[in-house]
Amino acid sequence: MKKWFISFSVLAVFMSCGDPSTDNPGEDQSTAGGQTKTEEVVMTDGVNNFTARDIDSLKYTYKKPIDAGFYFMPRVDRVSINLLPLESWEKLFPIHPVFVDPIHVQTTWGVAHRTDFCKISTGARPFEVTEVENGKMVFIPIDGNCSNCIMELMKKHDGGVFTLCAEEKFLSLLSEQNGEINSSGITLKVLTDEQLTFLETVFGK
Predict the structure, then answer these.
(1) Per-residue pLDDT at 190
(2) Does residue 8 have a pLDDT over 90?
């Protein structure tokens, strides 16, 4: 009789425990049924959304030099202080000394978007150089992958301003409206020999 009572008590304890999979109200149920939890958006630049993990990553890599390439530029000004404060996805640059235009001082400083850019790839095609009044005009060809990247970037930031960045500086402000960018390449006007040499050194590989 005593053994029977003990066995009954043990069975009652097990039955009272219920289903252990539903016993923890603090357990994340978002993974049930094969679904994964979506990380919460904490910041936005108006087009891109950034999670806490994204922001931490951008803060960690902020001091890393950015790659030479074609960048979206949210803001430009003649004075750097007017462009502060910066967000984690932004980086402040001066214009490259070789490309300074004393007539257009509003291009002295600019903010490049660190995550919205395309590396330039010419597909081993040579630059096309044309003599124009007071200098030269150069056409930088781009390959198919680079073309797709640039077209998507301009669509994403429709009507925006873009730039070629190199050596932690921007070279020239570009826009689709001025006919300086298309699916075949990028055109820069009225260049000196020094500017052309710099562009070929950076992007003509």
Answers:
(1) 75
(2) no
Report the pLDDT value the prediction gives residue 200, as an integer from 0 to 100.
Answer: 92
Find the range with the poorest average confidence among 10-24, 47-61, 131-145: 10-24
Residue 191 is inside which H or E element, if any?
Answer: strand 185-191
Tokens of 32: 């049930």
C-alpha 155 chain-centroid distance:
14
For residues 45 and 205, give the distance between their C-alpha atoms in angstroms, rounded to a whole number. 33
> With contact defined as beta carbons under 8 Å apart, do 80 and 170 qualify?
no
DSSP tally for the chain: helices H, then strands E: 4, 12
- Considering only residues 91 and 25, tell me which one the structure prediction assigns the higher pLDDT: 91
User: Residue 56 and residue 94: Cα distance in Å, rounded?
Assistant: 26
Distances (CA, A) of 191 to 11, 119, 127, 128, 173: 89, 22, 13, 12, 14
**Contact (Cβ atoms closer than 8 angstroms) between residue 185 and residue 131:** no
**Tokens 């904490």 appear where?**
42
